[in-house]
Each structure stands twice: as C-alpha cells, then as structure tokens.
Amino acid sequence: MHLDELLQIIGEFGTFQKRQYFLVCLVGLYTALPILCSVFLAATPKHNCKIPAEYVSSAERVYGNLSHEELLNLTIPWEEKDGELTRSSCKLKSWDRNASIVDIGNNTASVKCPQGLDYSQEIYTSTVMSEFDLSCGNEWLVSTSQSVFFVGKLVGDALSGIISDRFGRRPTFLVAIILSASVGILTALSPNMIVYIVSQGLQGSLSGCIFLTTFTLGVEFVGPSKRNFAGFGVMYFFSIGYFYIVLFAYFIRNWRHLALVLYVPAYLFGLYYFILPESFRWLLSRRRTEEAEKLIRSVSMTNINSEPDDETIKSVIEDKEETSVSSRTYTPIDMVRTWKRAALTANVCFNW
C-alpha cells in the first residue's frame, strides 16, 4: 500500500493536517516580510539642500521674517521632472557674497548642496536613505542592497531543496527561521551600508530556505486530492503577509524600530520545535521507519480516533516505490533533466 492510499483511509486533510497546515501558513505570512520590508526601510523621503546661514541672514535683511516655504522658493532652483516643474532635491542656487538677495532669487546658476541635505520627516522619521545620506549620487547603494538580496534568494532557493532533502524539512526550517530573526536584528543595528547590504544578502538566502521548506511541509502532510488546495493556501497567506507589513510600517516610521518589530517576533517560531513534526514522506524516504510509524499512528488517532492495523502500516513502510522516490538528494539540474521537466520549469519561471 502507498502512503497516499493510507491517507485516503485515515484522512487526507483531517484535523491533524489542518493543525499542521495552519502552523505552516503562519510562516507564510512571515516569508513575505524580507521581500517587501526594504520598500519602507530604504524609502526616500522628500529632501532638499540645507540652506546655509548666510542665505538665511541675507534673505531676512531684505524681506524680514520668511516662512520655510518662502525661503525655499528663494534659494532652491526649480527643475522639470517627468513633465512637471518641481524644486531641485540636490541643488542650491549659487550665491555671491557681494550680491543682494534679489540676485539670489533670480540667479539660475546652481551648485551641489554645500552643507548636505535636509530630509523631510513628514512621512518617515528615519530611513536608510536619510540616515546614511544616500540621495544625490549614492542611490546605487540601495539598489545594490536589493540586488544582493535577490542574488542571495536565488542561492537560497537553489540550495534549500538539497539541504532539506539531506537534513529534513523541520530542522532546515527551524535553523533558517532563527537565523533570519538574528540577521533581521543585524539589519536594524547596521552601523553603515556595508553591514546593511551583507545582512540583506543573508536574509535573501534564508528567506528562500524558509518559504520553500515550509511550503513542502504543508503539501507533504496532505493527500493527493488536497495537494493543490494546500499549495495555493500557503501562497495566499504569503500574499496576506504584505498587508500586515504595511500596517506596521504605517505606525512605525523609524526604519530601525520597524526592522526590530518585524523580525524579533520570528523567534517565537522556535516553539515549532515542540509542535511541528517532520514530514512522514521524508522520514520514509530516509528509512526512519520508527518515527514514520509513530507519526502515521498519531495522524490516524487524531483524524478518525483509531489506528490502522500493523499489517497496513508495515505495507506502507516496506513499499519500495514509496521509499525510493525521494531517497536520493536532488539538485537544480534535475529540473531540466528531461524535456517535460524542462518545459514545466520554463513555465514556472515565465509565470514568476
């Protein structure tokens, strides 16, 4: 008897699987976090050149007290951007010490900000961009951090299957989630952009391990007729994760505080060590028969309040086809080993 046939008897998506599936879906919420959070951590607030004291005193001698808006109109040149006229974010009108404020106001010549930038706190009190002053020529560092994240994710996605096949889905997930929370703290405490970029690369590789491992766990617990539902369900929770990140970002406008609030709770997933079992399919493939038998009995008792007879369980455990399918460790090369599999891989890549 195959394991799928046994699951049809003891429940393809019974109480036991629903409980484990709910735990997996909670992880799906978290896995959306590393991908989207940089949108808020590294957001670009409105900014303009800091106005030197000489400009301010010269303007006030002529015009008296000026509002901040009036001072910006006198000292910041206007530029055309995307067909609209806006104040320059990175230039200041040049100033001749012997000139009057009228000349300052009319002068079209401009210079780069002599005293740095002044970032608006209207939306964000602090971001990676404002704290490390990455506007006006250094934006490439933020783009680099995002690229490094996805390079790390590519590596993590490619290696996660190999690692989880070798060591198990459960330990791979537990180690990756604890490391992810720790790297998140490193992100929040980054003293410079080098540390921030490195943390993003590490986070990308870990996020791949977490998502794919938990996705596999969620699917392997259920029977064949419920497998599509299980797969789509995890993805739905992944999408819902975008919403709660936005909710936290709305109330927490400091990027370091936001990173801590988003990542530190992930340590709670360490409790899964006590409540999330290993995949019985993986246990069977690695011939850990005693653990697989105990888990099958637990599923049966939870779902139908009875255990299958010893002969039935023995037939599943000794099923050579069941244990040989996943006994070897697969690599990304196997995704293109046959024409049919290569076509499926190409289709998935196209959809992504």
Q: How does the overall form come out from the CA principal axes?
A: elongated
Q: Radius of gyration from the CA trace?
A: 28 Å
Give the domain tally: 2
Mean pLDDT: 87
Give me the CATH superfamily of the largest domain: MFS general substrate transporter like domains
Helical proportion? 55-70%
CATH first level of the largest domain: which class? Answer: Mainly Alpha
Can you list the strand order of the major beta sheet? 1-6
Which architecture of the largest domain would the CATH scheme give at its second level? Answer: Up-down Bundle
Walk me through the structure.
Residues 98-352 form the Major facilitator superfamily (MFS) profile domain. The chain has 352 residues and is mainly α. The protein has two domains: 3-43 and 139-343, Growth Hormone, Chain: A (Up-down Bundle); 47-119, no CATH class. The chain contains 19 helices and six strands. It has helices spanning 3-10, 15-31, 33-36, 38-41, 53-63, 68-75, 101-106, 128-131, 140-167, 169-188, 193-220, 227-251, 255-263, 272-275, 280-285, 289-304, 310-317, 320-325, 339-351, and strands spanning 47-49, 78-81, 84-87, 91-93, 110-112, 117-119. A two-stranded antiparallel sheet has the order 1-6. Strands 2-3 form a two-stranded antiparallel sheet. α9 runs antiparallel to α10, α10 runs antiparallel to α11 and α10 runs antiparallel to α13. It is elongated and about 100 Å long. It starts with a helix and ends with a helix.
